[in-house]
Amino acid sequence: MSGEDDYDVVVVGGGPGGYAAALYGASAGLRIALVEGGTVGGTCLNRGCIPAKALLHTAEVYRTATRAADFGVITDGTFTTDWARVAKRTTGIVDKLVGGLTGLIKKRKVELVTGHARLTDSGAVLVDGAQLRGRAVILATGSAPRTIPGFEFEDERIVSSDHSTRSSSLPDRVAVIGGGVIGSEFASMFTDIGVQTTLLEALPGGVLPTGPEPELAQTLRRALLGRGTTIHAGVKVNPPEKSSSGIVLGFQGNGESVKIEVDQVLVAVGRGPRSEDMGLADAGVRVTDKGFIDVDTATMATSRPGVYAVGDVVDTCGLAHIAYAEAIVAIKAILGERPLPIDYARIPWVVYTHPEVAWAGYTEAGAKAAGYDVVVHKHKFAGNGRAMIIGDTDGMVKVVAQRDGPILGVHIVGPWASELLAESYLAVNWQALPEEVGAFIHPHPSLSEAVGETMLALTGRSLHG
Ligand SMILES: Cc1cc2nc3c(=O)[nH]c(=O)nc-3n(C[C@H](O)[C@H](O)[C@H](O)COP(=O)(O)OP(=O)(O)OC[C@H]3O[C@@H](n4cnc5c(N)ncnc54)[C@H](O)[C@@H]3O)c2cc1C
After folding, report:
1. Where are the alpha helices (DSSP H) in 108-213?
2. What distance in angstroms lies between residue 42's CA and the mean position of ligand 1's atoms?
3. Are residues 200 and 257 in the same domain?
4. 142 and 292 in contact (C-beta within 8 Å)?
5. Mean of the pLDDT values across residues 352-374?
6. Residue 141 assigned to a binding site
7. What is the pLDDT of residues 19-60, one digit of tens each?
8. Does 311 contact ligand 1 (Cβ within 6 A)?
9. Is 2 a known ligand-binding residue?
10. Same domain for 391 and 262?
11. Does the active-site annotation cover 232?
12. Which residues bind FAD (predicted)?
């Protein structure tokens, strides 16, 4: 690396936003430098999406094993988890993906530069004393776990998802603070694996209090309660106190004041942007009062010409696939093309709990509030043959459509909702009519029939729905 290096684009941050910008830009013939201060893959590969879903899958295997007899599979004796082995498997998956990504970066001739990057007021990127100059710069520095006063992260006791995704041991008793996506996923995983789990959430409902169709959150809440999660909603948690046998956590709400003892507290109250110590103010890159880099989402351009920002460091959705999409928008804008803007109201959302929750587009209340005359149909998985075969019938598909008009939103809670959403996402974004999707043939027996049946029923005629 020389101080005079010249690139089309210098990308700062090698997580999903940054590596997607580098790979997509390189595939369009741009000369790219990618600066990463830690490990490529960022939060998602190293301590987010991938390890979290690997742990959730272990929980699914465990849950299925506990019910093996229901399927006629008789096991003699008890079984347990070996969390060191679980962690080794997770690390194996992460390492393979990081290795594959590193190879791809090399193959596309992206120059990978290791070190902490800062923007200078001239618009160059400074890494360990060397200056990288690009026609454009993309900032993709991501986010880090937030905490609450009194809950400073500390060894195995007060932890963030960074710890829980990669730990080789399990607590016996855990309190998860925050019932959002990350908190709910961990509560689901811990519960299934046999950890005594208490979920504490400040908002009413307790589980996924913002975001999905309330019926989806209620289904998940019921399922978690049924499997043994203790949920306290609408509570305010006091700072933890150490005891000889664990951590005492007090909380108030709903007219009660409760104290519980746990071995570990997982704080999952959201993530904050990593925009500090990057020279943004001097470089003229505007940051919001919450620390997010201010962008025009039509192009992902910041307030400084030639500098773009994507992913968790901008105030959009905090999802890896949105970081990918924003990276493509930024590269297209740099190439002088007219990128198709992301329709943030219709993006795909997935929560990988058990049951899974997935949705795209308007909720019923959201569509009504936006002034639509809506029609709604719901189809439960209870009557679906494939759901019975896999022994997983809890949940439903709910479709919200404009009366005599297109599909506005699809909401799924149930088995493999994450995978089922793809078809519905396309339908919502193509603004398809229910009768168009209902006319498509869904294989039998399949979980996807529940989607087809819901669409068909919206035409006024139906098979099983
Ligand atoms: C437990 C958990 C589970 C998740 N599950 C999902 C999921 O299932 N699906 C989903 O879509 N999303 C999920 N997410 C969110 C997802 O991980 C993020 O949205 C995604 O990683 C954002 O990508 P990014 O590139 O913006 O930032 P990051 O992935 O955070 O990457 C930023 C990178 O920039 C580097 N960096 C920062 N500052 C500098 C600097 N100054 N110089 C050089 N390098 C720097 C960092 O080291 C890091 O590698 C999850 C997150 C967590 C924590």
Report:
1. 161-164, 181-193
2. 5
3. yes
4. no
5. 98
6. yes
7. 999 999 999 999 999 999 999 999 999 999 999 999 999 999
8. yes
9. no
10. no
11. no
12. 53, 141-143, 312
